[in-house]
Amino acid sequence: MFTLEQSTEKANSPSLAYARVGVVLVSLWYCSMGWLATLFADPDHARVWGGPIATAIAAVTLLLTWRGYWRWGARCLVSGALALTTFLAWNAAFQPTVSVLILTVLVVFAAWTLGMVEASLAGIGVMLLGLVLAYSGHARWEQVLSIAYVMLFLLGITWLMVQGFKRHLNELQSSLIALELHKRQLNVLFQAVEQSTSSVMIVDVDKGAEVYANQKYRQRMGRDDQSEHGRVTGVGMTTEQRVQMWALLNAGKTWEDVVYLVRENGVTVIDEMRVAPVLGENDQLAFLVETRTDITEKMEAENRIRHLQHYDSLTQLPNRNGLLHELSEMLEAQGKVEMHGIAHNLSPYRSGHDWHSLLIIDIDRFQNFENSRSRLWTDVLLQAFVARLKALVPDAAIMARIRVSRFAVVVKGVGKARHEARIGAYTVAQELQRGLSLVQITGLPEGAEAVQLACSVGFTVFPFVEDGLKADSGDHVLRRAGVALSQARHQGGIRSMRIQKYWMRPCSGA
């Protein structure tokens, strides 16, 4: 406690700056009280020395305070005042009223600046001084008792005040620490929201205006001025989405959906939008927190993946999965027609409904082309083959590439009876065999080239319910057509028709 040097932190503490100011003010006050005693004293009286001695004590106190040792300055002031009072009392110049006032102020001053321990020591010193003066006959005992009573009373009151002040100070420090912690948390939260890749906006419900928007939101909306307000939530939403959003928000629930925002340049942006309610007083809706995440690239990637799952990347035709999906939809639609029609028991050979055909065309010995020609050449050949195939099939037909050199064609409504449908499918198969025997390819570095091909064709008609099954399906239709193709590929002898070194095999149906 009694250290000469003080740390820079304590010396520069705002709470101790008031103590230093108190030391200066009390020093000046004590000096003025000393000179007042000198002015009203007789020339030959000991109180004449009160002004000079008080000035010397105040000067030493101010010097120590100016040098930064304000605690030692306060101790000097208290001890010097006690010594001066002792000197005056010993020389029969003791004035009880003025002395009690001065000593009382100094004891209280010591309590607030130096602490209760040193204030208690100062109070005990005052009481000991009174006892010595009373014992030596320089003061009366009733004066000493009154001074002791005042000192004890003031020390008790001051102790209670200091304790209350400390408790209040501790509460304030705890509040400041909590506020500082909240400030750091809010700063981290602000930085996280401001640097987020998602667009965040907060809207005042009562005013219907924006109160905050992060940097991403301002950039996406083409706004660089943070002070611009007035934009309400729901940009890009449909009327139905707005009604649904407000119904959920008024119920205290969060709304989220996908919205389409058209920018000024005409580009459509897909946003995953989420609006959360913030309740205020009386659990009333006060603010809305709108979060938008640009999922345009994600949706495009999902669409590309979905496209690749059902379409061939080279020919842009449906692949096997896409073909099965088309067949399933056709059979499902046919089943709905039958359920709402007259007959509900489908017979495999019942007439009266539309029959469709599935033809599978396979390029014979395509492996020879892959082994002898480049990858680019075979790709161009397949694209030219598809272009020729599109020109031969009806406009409403569905085409698909189910293997490297194998294609499928679905022709709708080839007949009203199974036999009629088989004849129609056989006719289409023969036309395809003849039309695909010669394919003209272009776009090669070496120029255009005519290629003669031989194709095998297998077909089936549907819907056809096989024995043991309750309904037809896309897998069953594709399997029947595949069996027919295998039969066509393995037919030989006089039924084979050779065209140069490539083969066109007869078509076969199931």
The low-confidence parts are: 1-11, 224-231, 340-349, 492-505
User: Roughly how many Å is the radius of gyration?
Assistant: 52 Å
Strand order of the largest sheet: 2-1-5-4-3
Silhouette: rod-shaped
Helix fraction? 40-55%
The largest pleated sheet is described as: 5 strands, antiparallel
Model description:
The chain contains 15 helices and 14 strands. It is α+β, with helices and mostly antiparallel strands. β12 and β13 form a beta hairpin. α2 runs parallel beside α4. The radius of gyration is 52 Å and the shape is rod-shaped.
Brief overview:
Helix content is 54%, strand content 17%. The chain has helices spanning 8-11, 14-39, 50-66, 70-90, 96-113, 116-136, 141-194, 215-220, 239-250, 296-310, 320-340, 366-372, 375-392, 418-435, 474-489; strands at 199-204, 209-213, 255-262, 268-279, 285-294, 355-363, 398-401, 406-415, 438-441, 449-452, 455-462, 497-499, 502-504, 508-509.
Give the topology, please.
Layout: H1 8-11, H2 14-39, H3 50-66, H4 70-90, H5 96-113, H6 116-136, H7 141-194, E1 199-204, E2 209-213, H8 215-220, H9 239-250, E3 255-262, E4 268-279, E5 285-294, H10 296-310, H11 320-340, E6 355-363, H12 366-372, H13 375-392, E7 398-401, E8 406-415, H14 418-435, E9 438-441, E10 449-452, E11 455-462, H15 474-489, E12 497-499, E13 502-504, E14 508-509
Parallel strand pairs: 11-14
Antiparallel strand pairs: 1-2, 1-5, 3-4, 4-5, 6-8, 6-11, 7-8, 9-10, 12-13
